[in-house]
Write a structure and sequence with these properties.
By secondary structure, this protein is of the alpha+beta class. Helix content is about 50%, strand content about 20%. It has helices spanning about 1-15, 20-30, 35-45, 50-60, 80-100, 120-130, 145-150, 150-160, 185-195, 225-255, 260-265; strands at about 35, 65, 75, 115, 135-140, 160-170, 175-180, 195-200, 205-210, 215-220.
C-alpha cells in the first residue's frame, strides 16, 4: 500500500513540473534524511550520471539542503512552501494569459471540428460550454447526464440563460423548458446503438457525442453547417416529443407502437 502511495505521489509531482528523477530523488529524501547523492541514487534508482545534477536542482528549488563536504549529505525540506509558490506562480500565469491572450487571437469564424474521446474529455468540455453560456442552452440528453450536469445547468438558469432540454427519461427537478422523449423501446435502442448527447451554447458552438459501452466519442465545433444540423436534430425531437404526447393513440394505431411501420423501412441509426 505504501509503495502504491509513493507511485501516486511521484505521478502527481510530475504533473506540477518535476521530472522523473527529481520526483524519485525527493521522495527518497523524505524517507531517508541526511544521505549522500550516491545513496540516493542507489535507493531511488536515479542513474548515478544524473543524480548530482538532480540534487542541485532540488537544492536550487528550495526542496533540499546540502550539508558538509566529502561527502555532501542531503536532507529534504518541506514541500509546503514550494507548493504555495507554485500555486501563486501558476495563478499569476493563468491570469496573465487570460488578460492578454485575446490580443493575439485572430477573430474570424472558427470552422474547426475537434474530436474528443473518452468520458472525462467530453464531460469537461460540456461543463465548460454550460458555464460559459450567456444567452441560451439547448440540450438533448439522458437522465444520467442530466443529473451529472444538473448543478451547472441550474447555475446557468440562475444567470438568466434561456434553457431548453429534450430529456430521455424522467426527472422531478426540471430546469427551463423540458420536453420528454417517450417513444417506446428507446431505452432498448440506446443499449444497442448507444446514447447520444447534444448541446448548443449561445447558438455559437455545439457538441454532439455518442456513448456506447467502452466507447465514447464527441465532436465540438463552431462550423455553421454542423450547427444547423445540431439545431435541426434538437428541433426535430422537440416536434416528435410534443406530437407524440398529444396524439400517441392515433400514431400508435396508424404507424404501430414506436412508429414501427415507419422504422422497419429505415436501416440506419
Amino acid at each position: 500500500m505504501r509503495e502504491n502511495k509513493e507511485k501516486k505521489i511521484i505521478k502527481e509531482l510530475l504533473r506540477i513540473g518535476f521530472n522523473k528523477y527529481e520526483a524519485k530523488a525527493y521522495v527518497t529524501l523524505l524517507r531517508n534524511p541526511n544521505v549522500t547523492a550516491y545513496e540516493i541514487s542507489k535507493i531511488s534508482g536515479v542513474p548515478q550520471s544524473k543524480i548530482y545534477e538532480t540534487m542541485k536542482k532540488l537544492v536550487d528549488r528550495g526542496l533540499s539542503i546540502a550539508k558538509g563536504k566529502k561527502p555532501v549529505k542531503y536532507t529534504a525540506l518541506s514541500i509546503e512552501e514550494y507548493l504555495d509558490r507554485y500555486k501563486n506562480d501558476l495563478y499569476e500565469s493563468i491570469k496573465y494569459i487570460k488578460d492578454n491572450f485575446k490580443e493575439l487571437e485572430v477573430q474570424p469564424t472558427i470552422e474547426h471540428m475537434w474530436h474528443f474521446k473518452g468520458k472525462h474529455q467530453i464531460h469537461s468540455k460540456i461543463k465548460d460550454m454550460i458555464n460559459k453560456a450567456k444567452e441560451s442552452l439547448y440540450l438533448e440528453l439522458w437522465t444520467d447526464e442530466y443529473e451529472k450536469f444538473f448543478d451547472e445547468i441550474l447555475k446557468a438558469n440562475e444567470r438568466g440563460v434561456y434553457i431548453v432540454i429534450v430529456l430521455y427519461g424522467k426527472t422531478d427537478k426540471e430546469i427551463g423548458k423540458v420536453y420528454y422523449h417517450e417513444l417506446n423501446g428507446i431505452k432498448e435502442s440506446s443499449e444497442k446503438h448507444g446514447r447520444w448527447l447534444n448541446i448548443i451554447s449561445d447558438e455559437k458552438e455545439c457538441l454532439f457525442s455518442i456513448m456506447k459501452p467502452g466507447e465514447i466519442n464527441g465532436i465540438w465545433t463552431q462550423n455553421k453547417a454542423f450547427m444547423i444540423l445540431a439545431e435541426s436534430f434538437i428541433s426535430h425531437d422537440i416536434y416528435i416529443a410534443e406530437i407524440y404526447k398529444k396524439f400517441k393513440k392515433e400514431l400508435d394505431e396508424t404507424f404501430g407502437p414506436n412508429m414501427k411501420k415507419i422504422r422497419e423501412n429505415i436501416h440506419i441509426g
